[in-house]
C-alpha cells in the first residue's frame, strides 16, 4: 500500500491512503491520525489501511479525492530519529580519490552512519532554502526505510521484518561547510541542513520482485534543471544492505517506531549510469580533467528525484525542489 501525509496546518499532517497509480487518495484519520501513530500501532493499523487501499484501487473508497503531490508533506513531516548511512562505497571511493586520499579498509567492515536533524523535514515539492550559494549546496538522492520498534543488538536477519515502509529522499549537503566540520572529528551538524522525502511511503510488497528483503533493484533517476544527472542502479554496489544498516544502528540501543534510515547516495562503479549527487560528478571531472567543472546549486535551480517500476510508472511520486535564498 501507499501512504502519505497531507498538509493541514499541523506539524505532522493528516494520514491519507494513496492509490497505486498516485492519482487518488482517501482520508485515514479514523484509523490513525498521522503516519507516526500508524507505525507505532502497525499490527492493528496496517490491515485496516490495506483494506482501504484495496477499496481505493477498486474505485470503491468513500470520500476519495484527487491526489495532488504538491500538497503532501514528507510522509513523516518530522521523526523521532533520522539516521543516514553510506552504503554505496563507490561514492565514497571516488570522492576520496579526487582528494588524493585512500579509502580506509575499515570502511569495508563497518558502515558509516550519522544522526541528522529530524524535527522538520521539507515537503517533497516545497522550496529548499539556503542562506548563501557559498555553502556549495548539493543533492544526495537516496532510498530510506521506516522501521517499527527495533530491539538492541538485533541481527541483520532479524532486522528484515522491521522494514515497514520505504521512501526516496534528497539529503541536501553543503559541500563547502562539511570539510571544516568533519575536521573537528565530531560529525555533521551544519553541513546537513535540509532533508526531503518523497510524496508517498510504500510497503515493501509494492516493489514486487525489485525488493528482495534487503535492497531495491531499480534505477534511481535524478534530474537537475531538467537535465538528467543519472539513474544509478540501487540494487548494484550497495555494500551494506538495509537489514545490515538497521543492525548497525541498533548495536548498542533500541530504535523507536518511526525511525527513518537512509541508504546514503546511490552510486555505481559503472559511471555510465550517471550520478545521484553533483559532488560525485565533480570528483570524476577532477580525476579525469584535473579540475571540477559542474557547479553546485545556484538559486533558482531545480532538482527532481524519482523511481519507476518496470512498466515506467512512478512508485513513490516525485521529489521536485527549487533552490531558493533564505530570507529569514
TrEMBL record:
MF-aspect GO terms: hydrolase activity
Glycoprotein in keyword set: no
Keyword Methyltransferase annotated: no
Keyword annotations from UniProtKB, A to Z: Hydrolase
A Pfam family hit: FAA_hydro_N_2
InterPro entries noted in UniProt: FAA_hydro_N, Fumarylacetoacetase-like_C, Fumarylacetoacetase_C_sf
Domain of life, per lineage: Bacteria
Domain Fumarylacetoacetase N-terminal, first and last residues per copy: 1-78
Domain Fumarylacetoacetase-like C-terminal: 83-323
Protein name: Fumarylacetoacetate (FAA) hydrolase
Species whose genome carries this gene: Paraburkholderia atlantica
